[in-house]
């Protein structure tokens, strides 16, 4: 599934929710249900520091796809991280680097990505793109 | 509900006051705004907004250097603001230096001490409940001069260990720099005792009054404090301006902080002589409009009465704590005997960020995180807290909304 298709699916999922409480209940459940990262990757090197919550992000190539795992100490952030991973993991570095991320706006959770020091999600998206650009550059060099 | 009833005898017309703050008349995420992030910044009354608008629409001009009417009018208003702020804290106007804010004021003193008064092996005392703004400038100074930063420990209920403080005072200590009211715990520190004990050992004291200025009467001469730093935006004024109060003798001794503009007396390429304080510390074009807004803000608070505000907020704080304690999973961080209305708490094992996000969805603005007091968070072994901080326009209805909002967040987080 492409990054666009993944996003459109999530947007469709969120359209069934009547109010913000249902949206957040879903995200909280997502956060609780998903063990996202191998504990050995919860290192300081993989930590994206925000003022509010911690996010750990690990990236590795599997074939020609970049695979992300992540975790957070805040359950809502973890749920959102889960959505981001669902969209961007198992995609090629080129597709990730060029991706237009619109689903967070579309599901009405833009405040979580405000460019403030208050959360690590924006930093995480930036970091994912940086990983993708890095792997893309490496692959061009190798070819 | 006794407290709520008693409140009305002190502040019968709180709705009238709320109407003077236009920003409060709005909805956030479909709910009427409950603003409980006053420790971070306070909202501005129309009196402040109008004063600033009048400056820009009527007499915008630079100060201290123009012979034309607008410049003279701007200079008068700027210096009148200095007098207003000085009167508000019981100082002489020439002891009040306009700065960018509390952080800038502390940095000014730390830079001066680093240059003139701090030497290898000396000591600086701060406390374990300081905001980063009252830690880092002293750390920088101590690192450069190979001096030692000593930290007054904080007890389990969030008070300073005064016995430990007493034992830290000695001939190597060059300054004590502590907060008056903790922005995280709400603790009101025994500043009179802190100053007297330091002075008995011949040590000057700087007070960070950022969290005190809107909530407690300040009389610097009665306190006999040497330096005091505060920000306008914590007391219903604009951002980007604050003051350093300094005893005249100290302001004379401190070296200039920055060069240029009004801080000079005479400049040649060989040598510059400096203006008298406070201008000695006000390099460049100052924040003129903000100073005028600051003056209007303290005039507003003066008109309402700081003692009355203090009494009202005290009752509101007691009400808030009593109501929050009815939530079984809630744990207060900081339970000092003498406290102000910055109330930090955790709910069960839930991350403060999660609680804050769910409160925001209900139109309730609180602060979550480490509140720029990371060492204090380490002391209480938590990643951060949820903090509700009160101001004169808050009501028991705001508190009820907060408590209801926390209950809903707990239900959602499971």
From TrEMBL, chain A:
Gene3D superfamilies, per database record: 3.90.1010.10
Descriptive protein name: SufE family protein
Family: Belongs to the SufE family.
InterPro entries linked: Fe-S_metab-assoc_dom
UniProt domain Fe-S metabolism associated: residue ranges: 12-129
Organism: Chitinophaga lutea
UniProtKB/TrEMBL annotation, chain B:
EC class (word): transferase
Keyword field contains Hydrolase: no
Occurrences of domain Aminotransferase class V (ranges): 34-402
Listed InterPro entries: Aminotrans_V_dom, Aminotrans_V_PyrdxlP_BS, Cys_dSase_SufS, Cysteine_dSase, PyrdxlP-dep_Trfase, PyrdxlP-dep_Trfase_major, PyrdxlP-dep_Trfase_small
Keyword field contains Transferase: yes
CDD domains cross-referenced by the UniProt entry: SufS_like (cd06453)
Catalytic activity line of the entry: (sulfur carrier)-H + L-cysteine = (sulfur carrier)-SH + L-alanine
Enzyme Commission number(s) of this protein: 2.8.1.7
Cofactors required: pyridoxal 5'-phosphate
Keywords, sorted A to Z: Pyridoxal phosphate, Transferase
Matching PROSITE patterns: AA_TRANSFER_CLASS_5
Gene Ontology molecular function, alphabetical: cysteine desulfurase activity; pyridoxal phosphate binding
Gene Ontology annotations of biological process type: cysteine metabolic process
Described purpose of this protein according to its UniProt entry: Catalyzes the removal of elemental sulfur and selenium atoms from L-cysteine, L-cystine, L-selenocysteine, and L-selenocystine to produce L-alanine.
Family: Belongs to the class-V pyridoxal-phosphate-dependent aminotransferase family. Csd subfamily.
PANTHER family per UniProt: CYSTEINE DESULFURASE, CYSTEINE DESULFURASE 1, CHLOROPLASTIC
Protein name: Cysteine desulfurase
């Amino acid at each position: 599934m492409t990054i666009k298709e993944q996003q459109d699916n999530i947007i469709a999922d969120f359209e069934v929710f009547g109010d913000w409480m249902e949206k957040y209940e879903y995200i909280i459940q997502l956060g609780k249900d998903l063990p996202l990262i191998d504990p050995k990757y919860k290192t300081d090197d993989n930590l994206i520091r925000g003022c509010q919550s911690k996010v750990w992000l690990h990236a590795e190539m599997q074939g020609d796809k970049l695979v992300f795992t992540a975790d957070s100490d805040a359950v809502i952030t973890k749920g959102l991280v889960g959505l981001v991973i669902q969209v961007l993991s198992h995609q090629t570095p080129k597709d990730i680097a060029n991706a237009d991320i619109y689903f967070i706006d579309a599901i009405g959770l833009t405040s979580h990505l405000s460019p403030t020091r208050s959360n690590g999600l924006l930093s995480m998206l930036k970091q994912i793109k940086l990983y993708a650009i890095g792997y893309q550059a490496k692959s061009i060099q190798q070819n | 509900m006794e407290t709520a009833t008693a409140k009305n005898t002190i502040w019968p017309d709180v709705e009238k006051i709320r109407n003077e703050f236009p920003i409060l008349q709005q909805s956030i995420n479909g709910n009427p705004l409950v603003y409980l992030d006053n420790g971070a910044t306070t909202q501005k009354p129309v009196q402040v907004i109008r004063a600033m608008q009048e400056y820009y629409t009527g007499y915008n001009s630079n100060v201290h250097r123009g012979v034309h009417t607008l410049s003279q009018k701007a200079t008068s208003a700027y210096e009148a603001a200095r007098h207003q702020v000085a009167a508000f804290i019981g100082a002489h106007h020439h002891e009040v230096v306009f700065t960018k804010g509390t952080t800038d004021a502390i940095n000014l003193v730390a830079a001066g001490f680093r240059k003139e008064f701090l030497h290898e092996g000396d000591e600086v005392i701060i406390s374990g409940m300081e905001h980063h703004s009252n830690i880092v400038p002293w750390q920088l100074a101590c690192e450069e001069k190979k001096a030692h930063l000593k930290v007054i420990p904080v007890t389990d209920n969030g008070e300073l260990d005064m016995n430990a403080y007493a034992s830290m005072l000695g001939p190597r200590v060059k300054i004590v720099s502590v907060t008056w009211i903790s922005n995280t715990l709400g603790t009101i520190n025994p500043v009179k005792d802190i100053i007297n004990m330091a002075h008995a050992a011949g040590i000057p004291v700087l007070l960070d009054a950022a969290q005190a200025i809107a909530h407690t009467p300040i009389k610097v001469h009665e306190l006999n404090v040497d330096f005091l730093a505060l920000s306008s935006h914590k007391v219903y004024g604009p951002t980007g301006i604050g003051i350093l109060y300094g005893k005249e003798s100290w302001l004379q001794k401190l070296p200039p902080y920055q060069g240029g503009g009004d801080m000079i007396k005479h400049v040649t390429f060989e040598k510059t002589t400096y203006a008298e304080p406070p201008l000695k510390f006000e390099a460049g074009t100052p924040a003129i409009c903000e100073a005028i807004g600051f003056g209007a803000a303290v005039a507003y608070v003066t008109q309402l009465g700081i003692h009355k505000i203090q009494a009202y907020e005290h009752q509101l704080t007691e009400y808030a704590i009593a109501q929050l304690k009815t939530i079984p999973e809630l744990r207060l961080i900081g339970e000092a005997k003498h406290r102000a209305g910055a109330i930090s708490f955790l709910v069960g094992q839930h991350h403060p960020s999660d609680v804050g996000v769910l409160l925001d969805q209900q139109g309730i603005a609180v602060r979550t995180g480490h509140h720029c007091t990371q060492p204090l968070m380490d002391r209480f072994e938590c990643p951060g807290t949820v903090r509700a901080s009160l101001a004169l326009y808050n009501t028991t209805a705001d508190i009820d909304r907060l408590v209801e909002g926390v209950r809903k967040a707990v239900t959602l987080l499971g």
